[in-house]
Amino acid sequence: MQPETKKLLTIVTEAVIEASLTADLKRLGAGGYTIVEARGSGSRGVRDAGWTTSGNIRVEVVCEPAVAARIADHLRENYYRDYAMILYLSDVSVLRPEKF
Amino acid sequence: MQPETKKLLTIVTEAVIEASLTADLKRLGAGGYTIVEARGSGSRGVRDAGWTTSGNIRVEVVCEPAVAARIADHLRENYYRDYAMILYLSDVSVLRPEKF
Amino acid sequence: MQPETKKLLTIVTEAVIEASLTADLKRLGAGGYTIVEARGSGSRGVRDAGWTTSGNIRVEVVCEPAVAARIADHLRENYYRDYAMILYLSDVSVLRPEKF
Fold first, then answer.
1. Maximum Cα interatomic distance, chain B, rounded to a whole number of Å
2. pTM score above 0.90
3. What is the ipTM of this complex?
4. Chain A residues touching residue C59 (CB < 8 angstroms)
5. Contacts of B3 in chain A (CB under 8 A)
6. Which residues of A are less than 8 Å from C56 in CB distance?
7. pLDDT digits (tens, 9 = 90+) for B40-69
8. By the CB < 8 Å criterion, does B28 face chain A?
9. In order of start, what are the domains of chain C with their CATH numbers?
10. Beta bridge partners of C4
11. Is A86's CB within 8 Å of B32's CB?
12. Which of A79, C43, C48, C90 has most Cβ atoms within 10 angstroms of its Cβ?
């Protein structure tokens, strides 16, 4: 099994944009994504409302660094103004079988 | 977009302490948190019951290292004796738009 | 509190194999695991069906590197042919109280 170093991009945002966001991910080159239902609190971009709780999703994308950067730029330009969103990146080793 | 290196503190614990835990997080300086419903098994602190399955929550906090340390110390002192809990830290790059 | 460096193994796969997978994890030396319900899309191993959405689980195991390698090898040999699965590893610092 050969590990490959990839980026894990985690996006926590409002559930209301899920369909739009996942369509964007595919179009921008993500090979897949994982979504879990979440709730939480945080500051909300320019609509900062302090500590609030609402229906969120936590989305993970494992991808090349260039794809992560492209997705992050797109999200910033299209969602940050209007939706609560936090994005963070970490390094992961993806394990793939030889037959993949 | 300027990445900032932060700590990602992940806490997996019993759902019954959620309200108390999130109040603690705010008070100790967390700027936000994300909670997902979880289930799982593990050893349970001093009440070690071996492999058990119950209603858990998985809580993530992205914060400065000093805040992560303060939260970890607080949880150790207040919850480890009585509740199943695992805490782990990793490094993440948080992507923020310039206008934040 | 002494941090210990461990591996965080994340497995995203089909919910239908949960019972079998968790039995394997225990047998292969995992001290615990955390499961969350997930959904998502991706390519599906040798049954590649492109972008599909189905009931998934996201499983995390914090363990020693050797245990992570043993689990990864086992999953490759037993599940990759027939089930959609992605595995990735990262480094985490696990915080344990002195009294553990």
1. 50
2. no
3. 0.85
4. none
5. 89
6. 34
7. 988 654 444 444 555 899 999 999 999 999
8. no
9. 2-90 (3.30.70.120)
10. C94
11. yes
12. A79
